[in-house]
Write a structure and sequence with these properties.
Helix content: 55-70%
Strand order of the largest sheet: 1-2-3
Number of helices: 4
Distance between the termini: 52 Å
Largest sheet: 3 strands, mixed
């Protein structure tokens, strides 16, 4: 998903007058548009599928961060023990 500087960076005035076209553009290409105001990048317009995938990736990274912290704190067990405990519980 490389940014095409000519096509993917637009001033807010352009977005306002071409909103429907811009929505179609991001949905069809799955490429974000950088929205500028007074020459500065201010926002990003992305399609909903890309947004959802990004949120899911961040959630997964957060879980990994929590797991790494648990390991550093010694709050973890070897997988062999965990699976052994599960098997014992199932066979009861």
């Amino acid at each position: 998903m490389a940014i095409n500087l000519a096509a993917d960076i637009k001033p807010i005035s352009y977005i306002k007058t071409n909103a429907a076209d811009m929505m179609k553009y991001v949905t069809d290409r799955r490429s974000p548009i950088i929205i500028t105001q007074n020459g500065e990048a201010k926002a990003v317009l992305v399609d909903i599928q890309t947004y959802q995938e990004t949120q899911e990736a961040f959630a997964l990274l957060h879980l990994i961060k929590i797991a790494e912290q648990d390991i550093r704190n010694g709050d973890s067990e070897l997988s062999e023990k965990v699976f052994s405990d599960i098997k014992k519980e199932i066979l009861r």
